[in-house]
Design brief:
Length: 253
């Protein structure tokens, strides 16, 4: 089921690029040209890193299933802030947990804002997006919070929220991007500055049968914006073209 057109095309392009690079190294070794060998090795590394940074799965039935969806929700993302050992010495496990919770809820809010912008400009006219405050309040009444939300399946959460589909995921960063978490980290250990790398893995699950409709895993480094909203905008710029709810929307600016 994963072998859809997009997956095949991405794999095909990767295989061709990889084979060309391997051939280049083999050929230059025969000629004993060290400069060309070095260039080809760098080419191998480039292709490997380029194609390993992003993976996307789209259920072949997602387009048809999405037509029946009236409302979707997103829950806080499970977050891991990977600090250096020296930074961790000045922080308790409880303080780190609060920072990660703030970051996970910030990703949830940023995703909501991203969908809301598209709804306001005329896209998603037949689809409602549940406000994260409503989502979290409903979950709280069921004694579900950031610390135990992973004990529930996406389908269980979606049924509790009474939505047709749910967006959930994981977020990993070497420095939080949400304003609250960044300030807290800066006060605790004096660590400010831009985020160098982040990995986000997000999924869309159908409520009625719990099936995975869409999964997007992306690693970004360097200039990735100043906050979680910037990050989500960057991540979703291309992914939205493969998301059933937005793939027919006009290109983003």
């Amino acid at each position: 089921m994963i072998n859809n057109y997009f997956y095949k095309l991405t794999t095909f392009r990767y295989n061709i690029a990889w084979e060309k690079a391997i051939y280049c190294v083999t050929k230059t070794k025969t000629n004993n040209n060290m400069k060309k060998i070095l260039l080809c090795v760098l080419l191998l590394v480039f292709f490997q890193s380029t194609f390993s940074q992003t993976s996307l799965y789209e259920n072949p039935n997602f387009d048809d299933i999405a037509k029946s969806h009236k409302i979707i929700a997103m829950v806080p993302f499970e977050t891991q802030v990977k600090l250096r050992p020296k930074q961790m010495k000045d922080m308790t496990a409880e303080q780190l947990n609060r920072i990660e919770k703030s970051e996970g809820e910030s990703i949830q809010t940023a995703m909501y804002s991203w969908f809301l912008k598209r709804k306001k400009r005329g896209d998603l006219q037949s689809l409602e997006i549940q406000d994260p405050r409503t989502t979290n309040a409903i979950l709280k009444k069921q004694n579900i919070d950031y610390n135990n939300i992973m004990d529930f399946t996406p389908q269980e959460l979606a049924k509790i929220l009474e939505v047709d589909a749910i967006i959930s995921g994981n977020f990993e960063t070497n420095k939080p991007m949400s304003e609250g978490a960044s300030i807290a980290l800066g006060v605790l250990i004096g660590f400010f500055g831009t985020t160098n790398s982040a990995v986000i893995n997000m999924s869309v699950h159908n409520t009625s049968d719990g099936v995975l409709l869409w999964n997007y895993n992306k690693k970004v480094s360097g200039s990735i914006g100043s906050d979680t909203e910037d990050l989500i905008n960057i991540l979703m710029r291309k992914a939205s073209r493969r998301l059933a709810y937005t793939k027919n929307s006009p290109e983003e600016d």
